[in-house]
Amino acid sequence: MDDPTIAEMRLPIEHVKTYEHELDYRDKFVLAPMVRTGSCELTRLLSLYYGADLVWSPEVVDKAVIGSERKVDPTTGVITYSKGQGPIFSTHPIEKPYLIFQIGSSDPELAVKAARTVQQDVAGIDLNCGCPKPFSTHSGMGAALLSTPDVLLNILRALLDEIPLPISCKIRLLPTQPDTLYLAARILRTGIRNLTVHCRTRDMRPGDKAMWERLGDIVKLGEQRGLPVICNGDGDGWPNRDRIREMTGASSIMLARAAERNPSVFASTGLVCNVTQNIPMLLRLAHYLDNPWGNTKFLLTQFKPTPPTNMTKQRRKEIQEIVSRSKTIAEVASQLEVELDGGEAFMEELRARLREREATA
C-alpha cells in the first residue's frame, strides 16, 4: 500500500487560481502574527521600515471582525475596524501591499465573511492553525484545527473559492513526522500560495528549542507543488539566517520574539539601539498616528537592551520605571526628553524605502 503522503502528492491541485495582485513569499524575512504586539500597526510599520518583506496581523477571530464598522481617520489615514467598546483591527494604507490578515476560525462560512470584511485593506489572507492558547483552541480554532484536518481543509477551500486574494496557512508540527507530512501534503494540495510552519508542536512552549530538523521534508513537499514553506521558530534574523536555510531548505524565515525585542532585527546592517533610536521612533510614530497608550506602553516594555549602547544598567532600569509609571505618550516622552514631532517624517522615509525596494526587486 502506498504511503498516504506519496499518494496525496500524486493528486492534482484542487484550486488553480491566478490573482490580480500576486504575493511572492520566497526569499523573505517576514513578521509573525503576534497577539497584542501586532494588534495595532506600529510594530508592522517599524518592521517594514527596517526591511521586513511581509507582515502578518495577529490572529483575529472571525466572529470578532464580522459586523465591525470600518472607519478611516481623516488626519492619519489609519483604518480601524471596531465593534462595541473598542477596535478589533487597525492598519495603515501604506502597509496594504505587504499585509497578511490572519483569521482564527473553525467554520468555512464565517472565515469567508471575516475575509470579505477586510479584503479591501490587505494583500492576503492566512488561516491560523497553530495558536495553542485557550482563547483560540476552545472554539476549535488555531492549533485545534490540527486535530480536525477536514475542517481545516474545508476552510481553506472556502477561502480559495470566494476570496480574490492569495490564501496561506500557518501550522505547527504534529507529534510524529509521518502525520505532519501527510497533513502538509493535504494542505499544499488545496491551492494555497504558502505554508508557514512553526517548528514546535502544540504542547511545546516558546522556550523549547524549535525543531528545524523536521522542516526539510515539508519544504521538499512544497517544492514538488511549486510552493514556498516559511520557517517559524527561533529565528534571530540575519545572524542565524544561513544556518536555518541550510538546515531546513526554507528560503523564507518568519520572525516573532526577535522582532518584538528589537524591530531592527530585519535590517541587514545590524541592530540599532532601542533606547537611543527605536524608543524615540516608536513614541513619535505613536503620537502621530494617535496610537492607544495601552498598546504603545506594551510595545515599549517588550523592547530589550540591545547593543550598540554604552548606557549603564542603572539608566536602563530608570527608563523601564519611567515607562511603567507613565500614563500617556506625552508623559513618557517628556520624562525621556524625546521630541514628539517627527512621525510624519518617519512615514515619508518609510514610503521612500518601500519605493526603493520595489524598484530594485
TrEMBL record:
Its cofactor is FMN. GO terms for molecular function: flavin adenine dinucleotide binding; tRNA dihydrouridine synthase activity. It comes from Dioszegia hungarica. This is DUS-like FMN-binding domain-containing protein. One of its GO terms (cellular component) is cytoplasm. CDD domains: DUS_like_FMN. It catalyses: a 5,6-dihydrouridine in mRNA + NAD(+) = a uridine in mRNA + NADH + H(+); a 5,6-dihydrouridine in mRNA + NADP(+) = a uridine in mRNA + NADPH + H(+). Gene3D superfamilies: Aldolase class I. GO terms for biological process: mRNA processing. Keywords: Flavoprotein, FMN, mRNA processing, Oxidoreductase, tRNA processing. Residues 31-269 form the DUS-like FMN-binding domain. It holds the Pfam family Dus. Signal peptide: none annotated.
